[in-house]
Design a protein that fits this description.
Blueprint (H helix, E strand, L loop, with lengths): L10 H9 L5 H19 L2 E4 L1 H16 L12 E5 L26 H8 L3 E6 L11 E2 L3 E2 L1 E2 L2 E5 L5 H8 L5 E6 L5 H7 L2 E4 L19 E6 L2 H13 L23 E4 L11 H8 L2 H6 L3 E3 L8 H23 L6 H11 L3 H22 L4 E5 L15 E2 L2 E2 L8 H7 L5 E8 L5 E7 L5 H15 L9
Parallel strand pairs: 2-3, 11-12, 11-13
Antiparallel strand pairs: 1-3, 4-5, 6-7, 8-10, 9-10, 9-16, 13-17, 14-15, 16-17
Helix pairs in contact: 2-3, 5-6, 7-14, 10-11, 10-12, 10-13
């Protein structure tokens, strides 16, 4: 069974099969590459592939394991593609931009380096929107990534290629990043798990900006346990304390007795929801009650969150892309160019007001989490939309003002700095996945994982696979 269907094993199971030598790394890498060949013509999830390099690494992994070498890393010989905005030394990394179509970096980003340090074999790159801007995975270099549950629909973004690869059994788990929902939204659209962690769980090392807090690297997988394990490994592999913020990971899973949950699908009326999304997420309340949690309808005061998010996002995009914009004037896609321009236009009073607003938001979240362990809400306000659109232009009868407004459900949470996870919550009448978002206090990532694990075990929605 293991050798026939190794792609559908969890990350934990793949590692165990390799360590017991029930499965070889060459067999696992070959199955990984074969699955890409099967699903990629339809989904366009993987955009750069290094099969020869991967097989050489797999043969070496098998040689060392057969020789009885001790102290091998826990994921030694497991294949994985990486998000195309994460630098990988020696492997093309385009950032989804025509300006970097032949770019091969000399360094590896911290999150990928941690995976490689844990023994992962890097096989290639997964698709992204240009510079990870926007929650729909499409660009002018590689085209559009399509949802495996309905190939006419979006896979979301910006970690859409990675999410599709995981959902389709290419790999058990993978890295991504999340500014305004780029791990959570693809997880929701593809029926997998995605965690945006607290700042510092996965540290950035120079020349990355260790103080950049809005965009966070993180992981997706088909199970909560695998996300939790990657969180542990990414903290323990290398020098996690190179980050200015650090909390040691503690993972345990029990029932939810005594847990107080603030439950509100629309965040107290703050976000507009499609009817099927609202109904499916509302039905999750009984699951939490059956697990022993006490539910309230209380939500934190998020009135400052929209402006905080948009200011921080403009600042980070301008800081990260200013030199690209100067070298290639007006070559960025229109929506991204507008973000960079907004960041460059910020003046000192804007930043003073931003700091005060962020402080008020911090107090509001601390007040909420003084009486609640987690906040539970919707991940995406809409079902997966047409892959031919950049973003949905209406939610119910209300026009969507721009390409960020349809994801207020995740961007408002990003502004708080709190860890947030999307877990499968059910399906629409047409079989499209719907995700539930679980949010905890800053540093409370283990609590979020614990609650999500209990929900996952009680519902079983994550076991449903796309039929390609």
């Amino acid at each position: 069974m293991t050798k026939e269907f190794p792609n559908w094993l969890s990350l934990t199971e793949q590692a165990a099969a390799l360590n017991s030598r029930e499965l070889s790394s060459v067999e696992l890498v070959t199955a990984h590459l074969d699955r890409i060949a099967e699903i990629n013509p339809a989904t366009n999830a993987i955009v750069t592939l290094e099969p020869e390099r991967a097989l050489v690494a797999a043969r070496e992994a098998d040689r060392r394991r057969t020789a009885g070498e001790e102290g091998l890393p826990p994921l030694f010989g497991v294949p994985m593609t990486h998000k195309d905005t994460h630098d990988t030394a020696g492997i093309r990394t385009t950032y989804g931009s025509e300006l970097f179509v032949d770019h091969v970096p000399q360094r590896t980003s911290t999150v990928v380096a941690r995976l490689q340090g844990a023994g992962v074999i890097s096989t290639g790159k997964s698709n992204v929107p240009e510079f990870a801007a926007g929650a729909h995975t499409a660009n002018h270099v590689f085209g559009t990534t399509r949802n495996p549950f309905d190939l006419t629909r979006s896979a979301a973004g910006s970690s859409g290629g990675a999410a599709v690869a995981i959902a389709c059994g290419v790999q058990a788990a993978g890295d991504g990043s999340d500014t305004g929902g780029s791990l959570r939204l693809p997880a929701s659209f593809n029926n997998i798990v995605g965690l945006r962690p607290s700042h510092g769980w996965i540290p950035r090392t120079f020349p990355e900006d260790p103080w950049q807090w809005l965009s966070q690297p993180g992981f997706m997988a088909r199970t909560v346990d695998d996300v939790a394990w990657l969180m542990e490994l990414s903290n323990d592999t290398g020098s996690a304390r190179s980050s200015p913020h650090f909390w040691p990971m503690r993972w345990e899973a029990t029932d939810l007795s005594g847990i107080v949950v603030g439950f509100s699908p629309d965040l107290g009326g703050l976000v507009e929801l499609e009817a099927e999304v609202r109904d499916v997420v509302a039905g999750a309340a009984s699951v939490f009650a059956d697990l022993g949690a006490r539910l309230t309808e209380t939500v934190p005061d998020l009135s400052e969150a929209r402006n905080v998010f948009r200011t921080a996002r403009a600042y980070e995009f301008a800081a990260n892309l200013r030199e690209v914009d100067e070298a290639h004037p007006r070559r960025l896609k229109a929506s991204l160019q507008a973000d960079v321009d907004a960041g460059l236009a910020l003046i000192a009073p804007d930043l003073f007001d931003f700091d005060r607003a962020r402080a008020r938001l911090w107090v509001a979240m601390n007040d909420f989490f003084s009486t609640h362990e987690v906040l539970v809400t919707v991940t995406s306000q809409v079902l997966p939309f047409s892959a031919d659109e950049e973003y949905p232009t209406r939610i119910n009868s209300r026009p969507v003002e721009d390409y960020m407004a349809w994801v207020d459900s995740t961007t408002l949470i990003s502004a708080t700095g709190c860890p947030a996870l999307s877990v499968p919550a059910g399906f629409s009448s047409s079989g499209l996945p719907i995700g539930l978002q679980i949010i905890g206090p800053v540093g409370g990532d283990a609590t979020v994982l614990r609650v999500a694990r209990c929900f996952e075990a009680a519902t079983g929605y994550a076991r449903r696979r796309p039929d390609l």
